[in-house]
Amino acid sequence: xxxxxxTISLIQTALHWHKAEANLAMLEEKxxxxxxxxxxxxxxxxxxxxxxxxxxEVAEPMNSKTxxxxxxxxAQSKAVVAGSYIVREQQxxxxxxxxxxxxxxxxxxxxRHLFRMAGENQVFTAGNSLxxxxxxxxxxxxxICYDLRFPVWSRNRMQANxxxxxxxxxxxxxxxxxxxxxWKTLLKARAIENACYTVGVNRVxxxxxxxxxSGNSLVADYKGHPLTDLEEQEQIxxxxxxxxxxxxxxxxxxxxxxxxxxxxxxSEKEKK
Length: 272
Hints:
With about 270 residues, the protein is an alpha/beta fold. The chain has 6 helices and 15 strands. Strands 1, 2, 3, 4, 5, 6 and 15 form a 7-stranded mixed sheet that branches. A 6-stranded mixed sheet has the order 7-8-9-10-13-14, covered by helices on one side. A two-stranded antiparallel sheet has the order 11-12. The longest helix has 15 residues, at about 180-195.
């Protein structure tokens, strides 16, 4: 088993409403500010526009401006860059997390649970596949915002080799300040129940719908203990995660060995 540490950077920032070029320029400057070797840079949900249902106005086809920007940033930083933006495919819109590698290869995850209280389910098409990516021997599952409230979707299940499905769970979000308590509580809960590191990257500031965001991006270890909490400041946080500590914890406290076996549906397919 790998004993590599994983260095990740969380970018917690305000966003310009519906101004992709301004957001990409701002985020590029922030990525340049990361002054140490990095494995993974994580951006918020809908980082190029803010959380909006005006998909027809701001959506991009795949392989367009934001895609090319992420490809450039990953190559220059020599790190994976991950975050979600609005993608149009034919007549459908997706809140799509792109996982862009330094060599230009990529994969993606389409948000499964669409936030009906804001009408997201009326505009966007839901995804139906989990994404599990490998990086330096780590297995990583990236999800999006409202997915955090649905633990069955993210359940860390045993594989045939008796290993858990992933080691790190990530949520990119535009999670409002009014529900910050739920955000922080659920991130810790997902870490505890899945015996994994959990990362949540949220935005700050106010969007074009006058919704306020408090940030509170955080990293929790496999016991649910916060390793970093960015609170309400606009900032970048870089942290190193220990794989060996995770392995040792799972050996000493193998609660996952007693987990209930289940499957979701025949439509669920895991992308490798």
